[in-house]
Every structure is written in C-alpha cells, then in structure tokens.
Amino acid sequence: MTDTGPGSVGGIVARIRDRAAGRRAVSVEDMVAVLGRRSYGPFLFVPGLIGLTPLSGIPMVPAVLAVIVALFAIQIVLGRSHLWLPGILGRRSFDGASVAEAMRRIEPVAGKLDRWFYGRLPALTGRHAVRVAAVICLLLSAVVPFFEMIPFAGIAPMSAIAAFGLAILVRDGALMLSAIIITVAAVGGFMAVLI
C-alpha cells in the first residue's frame, strides 16, 4: 500500500465529526468508510485518538478499540493493500452525538498537529518502519485490557498507538521516535504501578 502523500489530521477529524453529527449511532464501518481503505495511518490514529477521549471511560470501549487496532496492525504487517474489517466489529456502534462532540473537542488540537508535524526524518516512515510500528501497535493493543484495570489508564497505550498512526499519516519520522518513547513510558509506568 502506498500513500499519495501526508494526510491532514484536521480533515480526518472533520469527516468523522460530520458523519456522526445528527446520527443516533455511528458504527465502526461508518468511520472506516470515511477514512477510505488505502492509507495505513488513519486506521491506527483514529482508534488511538478515540481512546484519548472521554469515550475511553465507558467500560469495554478501550478493549474494542484495541481489537480494532490489532486487526489493522496485523494487516499492515502483512502488507495488505486494502484493509479489511470483519462485520461483527464493523457493526459495533457508538453514540453519534458523543462521537461528534469528542471530534469537536479534538478539532483545535488537530489543527495544531497539522502545523507541528510535517515530514521530518522521512526514512523513519518508510515501508519497513511502518511495519515495525504496526508490530509495536499490535503489542500495545494486547496490553490495553490490562491497563483497563486502572480507570483511564488505557489512555497511555492508546496515546502511543495514536502517535504511531499520526506519524504514519503525516510521514513524520521525529514523531515516530516520539511514539516509541511514549510506548516505553506507558509500559514502564504501568509496570511500576503493578510492582
């Protein structure tokens, strides 16, 4: 799969907001349709981003998001050109008003992200680097259920997943390095709490 160029975080957030606005429920498949199926970055970024909103406080939402991330990460590692989502997950829905409101809250941050990240260290966002990032996201998604034992602790691995997705989306290698640091901090922090 090859992207035509860096994507826009603001554009993705606005498209999801528009799809959710005025709808009673918005499904995962609805959001996938908004993103298209030919770009890897959004498929890691959007679930990670949702995991950073108040929606992550709803029981089982982080676990569902982690399963979605895992499915996409496996396909990225395998190099699939079009990402696939099983119907049982695609039909999973969230309250439309809550999703639209979460996206509205994120919009100012999305605009800043588009200005801050702009394709530094491009070698770190090449095909092999993207597959390594997908493996890390797969491992992170596996630990999200354990993080759920502590309220809102799932935000830590979802932050790293969102950072990897964003780095791939905007093709910013410096952000890819930051995502690795966030991963180490998240896992290290969780292990410290357990010990």
TrEMBL record:
It comes from the Bacteria. The keyword tRNA-binding does not apply. Pfam families: ExoD (PF06055). The chain crosses the membrane at residues 57-78, 129-147, 175-194. Keywords: Membrane, Transmembrane, Transmembrane helix. PANTHER family: EXOPOLYSACCHARIDE SYNTHESIS PROTEIN (PTHR41795). This is Exopolysaccharide biosynthesis protein.
